[in-house]
Amino acid sequence: MSHIQVENLSIKFRIYHDKSPSLKDWFANLIKRKHQASHSDFWAVKDVSFEVKAGDRVGIIGHNGAGKSTLLKGLCRVYTPSAGRVSIEGRLAPLLEIGAGFHPEFTGRENIYLNGAILGYTKQQLLEIEPEVIAFSELEEFIDTPVKYYSTGMYMRLAFSLATAMHPDILVLDEVFAGGDAAFMTKAKKRMHDLIDKANIMILVSHDHKLVKLLCNRVIWMDHGKVVADGPPEDVVERYLAGKSNG
Amino acid sequence: MTIANNLFKYLYEIKTYHYSLQQLVRQQLILRYRRTVFGYLWTLLNPILMMSVTAVVFSALFKVDLKTFAIFLFAGMIPWNCFSSMVTQSATSFISNEGLIKKIYLPKLLFPLSICFSVLIDSLLSFVALLIIILVVGGQVSWALLFIPVAFILLFLFSFGIALVISVSTVFFRDLQYVIGVAMQALFFLSPVLYKSSALAGKVAWIVKINPIAAYIELFRAPLDLATMPDPSIIISATIMGFTSLIIGLVFFIKQEQKIVFRL
Description:
The complex is a heterodimer.
Chain A: E1 3-16, H1 23-32, E2 39-53, E3 57-61, H2 68-75, E4 83-89, E5 92-95, H3 108-118, H4 123-137, H5 152-163, E6 170-174, H6 182-198, E7 201-205, H7 209-215, E8 218-223, E9 226-231, H8 233-242
Parallel strand pairs in A: 3-7, 3-8, 5-6, 6-7
Antiparallel strand pairs in A: 1-2, 1-4, 8-9
Helix pairs in contact in A: 3-4, 3-5, 4-5
Chain B: H1 2-16, H2 18-31, H3 41-61, H4 66-91, H5 98-101, H6 110-137, H7 148-172, H8 176-189, H9 205-210, H10 212-226, H11 232-263
């Protein structure tokens, strides 16, 4: 059974006012022994705690810059916590950035293996899913062409097909319902819903409130790095839209 | 010991990511010469051509026999090129993978490690090509050649430790990527690659004496040029320096690793 426990998670960024510190500045600071604040701290996620149990479909909503994506990246270990803890049971697949790790000079087929390896698939798994990925992306003709010659749509199709080829226990999504022509979109949506149905836990960041209400059984509203509300979708989305924080 | 614990946890994690590592190394090896006529052959041709030019010029300059000097030079250039490429290329390993690191979790060690492995593979192949040339030109074959694999391992340990420190430091101080180029050039002339370690006199002689690269060059030069085993004292000091460098590199890396993504 999959399970996610987030305890007092905080993720801090440093904002440098002028530039990144050079060697010269570093030595200068050593000698001066007086640290002027050349940077300020920014808490993208501040003291967030929640627990996600098997079967949960969690939607995360909030304004731009509320810390939603940073929180997801915290769950996926891209950012390490500045404070607090994240513990995860179950195989987690991040679908944060489809096509990250694609190399333009590599052919479609080579990228299946390169990007697949980066996504954490084993060689055996990749050998198994390769034909299905190629078929679903409808790229049979171009699979041995470097992806830099692909159109945006073709690129998206390959990346999407690969990223959704395996069924993870925990699915983490950051607005990925896009790309391809109408026919592919329909196919892709079906595959996506299939993936969500089979996942033990799903966490979705989205600005599409209808979609969140449709897919999720629980919604977390974030603002300025903090959890404002956490509860049933209808309720939380309603309050978010009304712009109130405490009922 | 938390550091020892971390280290084991770390190596275990790298093991689970071995397929990613393999793919990253493959990417390094394949991409460089894709769409060139000679393709991967350039990896072999490039050092051979460079060294041949150097051999012709410097044998004339030093007024020594070209064949003898060529063997002497090749034996010194192999470890030098391996060391220098590992350190220089690792320096930008995080900066050039910024996009990936900010999107997907991968053990950060994979980036410098994949570069160092690909440089090592390149070096091994160009060593084989040079060995053939050395034998054709009239180098001596001896049992001492069997020491070369050990020499490569020790050289790798030493260079990898330094590469780790440089790769992380470059993220914090971007100026380093340019400093490295100049520093490597200086170190090249202060290392006994073009000349015998005993040949340099005067104010800078002591630098060559304490230069750790000199020991690794000797590990290659004794079997290839003199057809003898390296001096045991040199083997011992190269081993100690190799492991020291590796341990310092890993400890430094593990301590700084989590800051990398925030500083890219």
